Amino acid sequence: MKALLYYNRRDIRFEELSVPKVEPHQVLIKVTDAGLSQTQVNEFIEGPFILSPEPNALTGMGLPLIPCQEYGGDIVEVGDQVSKQWIGKTVAVLPLVSCGMCEHCEAGNVHFCTHKAYYGLAGAHGGFCEYSAVNSDNVIEVENKSLLTFVEPLLVAAHSYHRYGESLENKKVLVLGAGAVGLSCAAVWRKLGAQALTMYDHLPNRLAKAESLGFNVVDTQAQLVSEFDVVVDAAGKDPLHERQAFEEAPTFLKPGGTVISIGTYFFPISVTPVESLVEEKSYVPSYMYNMEDVELLKDILPDLGVNFDSLITRVPFDKLVEEGYYQAELDRDTFVRIVTSVE
Question: Which of 124, 119, 127, 187 is nearest to 153 (CA)?
């Protein structure tokens, strides 16, 4: 089968591999939709960060690895321990693989698992390939195929909501970043009660896309100062701006407000703690997802009120490096979600 493998920073290669053998507890997916996330772009440009050459504690696998943690497709084969009723179903991959035995797993915090793996990022091949074998517990049936590459960021969004843990009634929420994660957060938070929700991004085309989906947007930071109860940082590192969203987010909060920190920053940034201290502004980190988030997403997935299909730009599999990775490095404002498949 055709596959793209990550070896190291700026070293990714198209290769021919054998179709993976399906273990008794696994399903084999014919990948129809594989999304290029900003995390994968960061790994390509400046990594490896999460992708690691060291053998994973759970799977024993290190680099090279097939990247892509946001993908899905059609089940074409199942292992001996899996019902054949799954064959033919369209599913998205839930990429987190936990051991199920450590203290964190037993407490329900599978995202803290001591030995965790993550399809396409840590210790397990992901979706930039023709066929993918995954554990049967790591799939969710999806009727709307345009959602296949959004299930993982929607889970991240659900986790951020649970991490906030307060009623959203009469709360003003700001989402920083109108990429796939930011729009997923906006969709989930609005669905769960954040009616006074605003989005901001310095990329005008992405902001226009958010507005076309029905979200309130602002295009200047002057409109944001000290207005919000919650700021969700779904932007992460921006190499084109000296001051990062993580640094700016508290300035958009009312006293006593909360920053939910989702975006990744692999390098030091400048924060002066006393600026948050005197107005008791909090940072709450939100990392991956757990099973509580999976159950929530199952309930709300059919009715999020967003046309996710309009966010997708498809590129041919053999053009993924130049039209995907390099395009994301050169100009992120030309797309929201790049999706590919061997088909």
Answer: 187
